[in-house]
Amino acid sequence: MPMNLTEIENLVKEAIPDAVIDIQDLAGDSNHYSATIISSLFKGKSKIEQHKLVYSALKGKMGNELHALSIKTKEK
Amino acid sequence: MNEVISNLIKNEIEQNDVCLFMKGTPDTPQCGFSMAISNMLKILEVNFKSINVLENEELRQGIKTFSDWPTIPQLYLKGEFLGGCDIVKEMYESGELQKKFSEKSINYIKK
Fold this sequence. Notes:
The complex is a heterodimer.
Chain A: H1 5-15, E1 20-25, E2 32-39, H2 47-57, E3 68-75
Parallel strand pairs in A: 2-3
Antiparallel strand pairs in A: 1-2
Helix pairs in contact in A: 1-2
Chain B: H1 3-15, E1 18-22, H2 32-43, E2 49-52, H3 57-67, E3 74-77, E4 80-83, H4 85-94, H5 96-103
Parallel strand pairs in B: 1-2
Antiparallel strand pairs in B: 1-3, 3-4
Helix pairs in contact in B: 2-4
């Protein structure tokens, strides 16, 4: 089951309220996305921890409903 | 995760300095992200062990639990989980990956 772009954005916003999200549907198939997420919550965290924050925001959908989401995190 | 799988994973990352859990093999990768990491390692001429998770469904799920990471590929350097494709790619581009290899005394070719 593909996920639409707004759904991903909403889940991230819910868990990371100050997130600035730039997300793109790479293939136009609602299945391959690339997202840059900027948040103050990433401060002082390793890349692994930052990505885990995003994964946990997506509530287990990553690797399941959501096949391919390439993530870039940046500190605000 | 059963003990057989977790022991299998532990053995692989203990016995191989550079260990890549991927979909497919370096010569015939089955996923773009797996191909990307494998290609970076090839470019740096790093000696690495690849493990094809598609050959073992229990391993495919097990490695996610083991690393607490929901996606594959996953790269381990001397037992340390480094990340998936996005993180490794960022590190490769910034030179941090190469630095990490030096720190851990893993041979690679400087470009």
